Amino acid sequence: MRVATWPTPRGRWASTWWWSPARASSSSGTRGPPCSSSWLPPTRWAASLPALSSLSSPGRPTPHPLPQCLQDKPLPSSSPFLESWDACLLQGTVCGLCGNFDDRSSNDFTTRDHMVVSSELDFGNSWKEAPTCPDVSANPEPCSLNPHRRSWAEKQCSILKSSVFSICHSKVDPTPFYEACVHDSCSCDTGGDCECFCSAVASYAQECTKAEACVFWRTPDLCPVFCDYYNPPHECEWHYEPCGNRSFETCRTINGIHSNISVSYLEGEQGGPGAGDDSG
C-alpha cells in the first residue's frame, strides 16, 4: 500500500494505491499476494469540509475528480474535523489481519494463501512478516491470565443480555458480543476499562441500531458522554443521541442537487438547524 498526501488551497488530500498481480509479484518479500485483481486508481479519499467545498466549486483545480460513490456521503458538521470515507472505495479490495471488508464475517480468517481457516492461530501465523519468526502455538485466555478481572468483566458485560437491550435480542444475538466483551474486558488493565468494555458494548449497540433497534444504553454511571449529561436541558444546541438524525448535507447539496439517500443512524452529538455552523 502506498499513501500520498498533498496540500490544496483549502485542505489536505490523501489517496491510497493497492498493488495488483500485474504490478507486484506474490513471491517477492514476505508481504504476500495482493488483494485486488486489477490496478486500482487512488482508492482512499480524506478531506476536511473546506477541501470538499473547493472540490465541488466550479473553476477550482482538483487533483482528481470526486469519486461517484462519495457524492452522497454526509459532510462533517464543522471544518476542523477530518472525515475519512472508505466503504464505497475499499470494500472488497483489502485483505489481511483486519479481514476482507466485504460484510461477511465468515471469511475474515482468510490466510495469506487465500484459505479460510477457523483457528485464529493459523490465521495470524500466516500473515507474519518474517518467515524466520516462530509460529505462535498458544493463545492464552485473557481471563485466565487475569483471573482477578473475570468476575468484574462478566458482571459488566451482562448488560448485553439484560433488559436494557431486550428490544434488540430477537434481531441480533448478544451471545458472541457478550463473549467478546468478557474477553476484551479481561485483557485490559484498570486504566483501559472505558476503551475495552465500553467499546465492546458500543459494538453491539451499533449492530442493534443497524437492525432498527435503537437502545439508549449510556448513563452517567455507564460509559457516559460527559459533554451532554450535564448540559442544561433546552439551553444547549447540541445533545447526545444514540441514534441520530439521518438527514445530512452531501457534496451534491453544495451544488443544489438533492438526492434521496439512505444512511445508518449515527450515535453522537446532534444539533438543531444551523448547528453545523457552531464552532463551540
UniProtKB/TrEMBL annotation:
Keyword terms: Disulfide bond, Glycoprotein
Renumbered residue ranges of the record's region Disordered: 51-70
A Pfam cross-reference name: TIL_OTOGL_Mucin
InterPro entries, A to Z: Mucin_vWF_Thrombospondin_sf, TIL_OTOGL_Mucin, VWF/SSPO/ZAN-like_Cys-rich_dom, VWF_type-D
Alphabetical list of SMART domains matching this protein: C8
Keyword Nucleus: no
Domain VWFD: 1-134
GO CC, any one term: extracellular matrix
PROSITE patterns registered for this protein in UniProt: VWFD
Descriptive protein name: VWFD domain-containing protein
